[in-house]
Amino acid sequence: MKYTKCLKKGDTIGLIAPAGPLRNIRIEDIKYELNKLGYKIKIGKSCYLSYKGYLSGRDEERALDLERMFLDKEIDAILCVRGGYGCTRILDLIDFTIIRDHPKTFIGFSDITALHIAINKICNLVTYHGIMAASIKKWDYFTYNSLIDSLNFKDELILRNPYNEEFISLYDGFCEGILVGGNLSLIISTLGTKYEIDTKDKILFIEEVGEYTYKIDKMLNHLQMTGKIEECRGIIFGEFTNCKKAFDSDDEIINILEEIALNNKKPTICNLKSGHCIPMVSIPLGMNCYMNSEDKIIKMIKI
Question: What does pTM read for this prediction?
Fold first, then answer.
């Protein structure tokens, strides 16, 4: 895997909206806040666009904006402004040789999962499941520093939750492999396509937001039937924000996750505070990961 340069104060961050349009915050306010943190900013055209109400511009416009950011020699890192929906629509339009030949730090989560999976797989480039720009006014000390730590560590990074939040072991053991994954709905959306997630001998990270617990069960069962869980070496479950029961008698989310762990007998940790939450842990994807679920250790390793 290729690693990108560290991000330091004075570097230039490119802002893009490859999925949904900005809501509830102006791009100028985001730029102001990032300037205060010490970064120069270039704003992509997609940050000003809206199409169909739920897309930040037409597919061709968003794909081209992404390519321009990777081609721009002045830009050191690319930060997505938000998720929503739309990244799967542009996968066939992206020239991935541009990303492969002009590697840059790429940050985002949620719908951005589709781009993480494709870039990790096609370009052999590490990307970052991390906070996005639209929530910048909610960033706290832990959240911002978790991102900086994940971008800038030298050899090893031990992932740590916010204070008073413990990892939970659902099945004890240890394993090592490349960390892949992201949002469960987006992982499912890649199946059966040429961008299908590759979990063989890897550690699978999963988070989700706003789905009923029975739908989480359905999607995890889908992953199970495709062999993606059987092929992986271990599982890390992140945050399942606002994933509620449809009916009071429905099973708890923790029981659904534990069933997956016990059925597959793989090292499994849950409650990594990464996903749709603040504070949030940022994590490198496409990088080697060591996990000891009995001792509750998750460590990223540059090799």
Answer: 0.97
